[in-house]
Design a protein that fits this description.
By secondary structure, this protein is an alpha+beta fold. It is built from seven helices and nine strands; from the N terminus they run ααβαβαβββββββααα. Strand 3 and strand 4 form a beta hairpin. This is Ice-structuring protein.
């Protein structure tokens, strides 16, 4: 028997299917929206806790000072003048090298081929580190094995061609606020110098220092340098190597007896040394006694022979 669908019923079926399709599309869009919002939230939270970019910024600022390993100071006016000049010039040089890759945009002396570094570049570098109010009086200065000449006419420093300058490179490992100051913990990684034993070391910092920044006008500027609570890994490993190792049976016996294992190991070592000493003493005594007996018997034999001859 054939079943006929009226035009009204046919239209109602089409409307129901359209509503179902629209509901499915809306559900898919809702799921996509929820996932997008969740992903954005996760990225936002991650960005709040990720200060990698900020740490890199401070690493670039401090590169010049770390190069020359300055002594601790409180107040930028108390920093060594030569160290500040070295940091200002070579920090600027390293910053240009890292950001631009070369010095093609800078003039060079036609005779000596030395790089001509404008004083304004040095001022800009120092302003980022110490604040815009800080002023450095530009002049020539002597380093360990070179002279950095300053030309008043051109207002440029003449930088000698060299393979590398400085003792350490910076590695910012932590940043935290304490007593209203920003502490930037910097690991000192020895520079790879050709012909130097330092060049054979890894990229592990050999020491840590905290650079102190104070907030002025919405920005943080360097005001001091102090030793860090963070210690290099070598110190921890050397301390671990100082522990006396014991045999497992001896350690178990010491634990059962309630004895300090280190003391047991020390006493065993002392007793071993004492036993060796006693053995050596007894051997020496036996040797001396044997020598004495032999000498006595020889003397007796000589006397008997003499009396017989008489």
């Amino acid at each position: 028997m054939k079943t006929y669908v009226t035009p009204e019923e046919h239209a109602r079926i089409h409307r129901r299917r359209r509503r179902q399709a629209l509901g499915l599309v809306m559900a898919v869009l809702l799921v996509i929206g929820i996932l997008t919002v969740l992903g954005a939230g996760v990225r936002l939270v991650a960005s709040l806790f990720d200060n990698t970019e900020q740490m890199q910024e401070y690493e670039d600022k401090l590169e010049g000072l770390v190069l020359f390993d300055p002594l601790p100071f409180e107040g930028i006016e108390n920093i060594d003048d030569l160290t500040l000049r070295e940091a200002a010039v070579w920090g600027c040089i390293y910053n240009i090298q890292e950001t631009q890759g070369n010095f093609d945009n800078y003039a060079h002396d036609p005779v000596t081929e030395q790089l001509l570094l404008p004083a304004v570049e040095v001022d800009t570098y120092l302003a980022r580190l110490l604040g815009p109010s800080f002023r450095l009086t530009h002049r020539s200065f002597e380093m360990d094995d070179m002279t950095i000449a300053f030309d008043e006419a051109t207002q440029c420093y003449s930088i000698p061609v060299t393979g590398g300058v400085g003792y350490y490179r910076a590695d910012v490992t932590a940043m935290f606020k304490q007593d209203g100051k920003l502490h930037v913990t910097v690991g000192y990684i020895p520079m790879n110098t050709t012909g130097d034993l330092i060049g054979a070391q890894s990229d592990t910092p050999t020491k840590y220092m905290d650079y102190l920044f104070e907030r002025t006008g919405g920005s943080w500027y360097l005001t001091g340098l102090t030793e860090s609570a963070t210690k290099p890994e070598q110190a921890a490993s050397s301390q671990a190597n100082s522990v006396v190792m014991m045999d497992s049976d001896e350690l178990q016996e010491a634990i059962l007896q309630g004895v300090n294992p280190d003391a047991v190991a020390g006493s065993e070592a002392s007793s071993g040394e004492a036993s060796s000493g006693d053995a050596a003493s007894s051997e020496a005594s036996s040797g001396e006694a044997s020598s004495g007996d032999a000498a006595s018997s020889d003397a007796a034999s000589s006397e008997a022979a003499a009396s017989t001859a008489g």
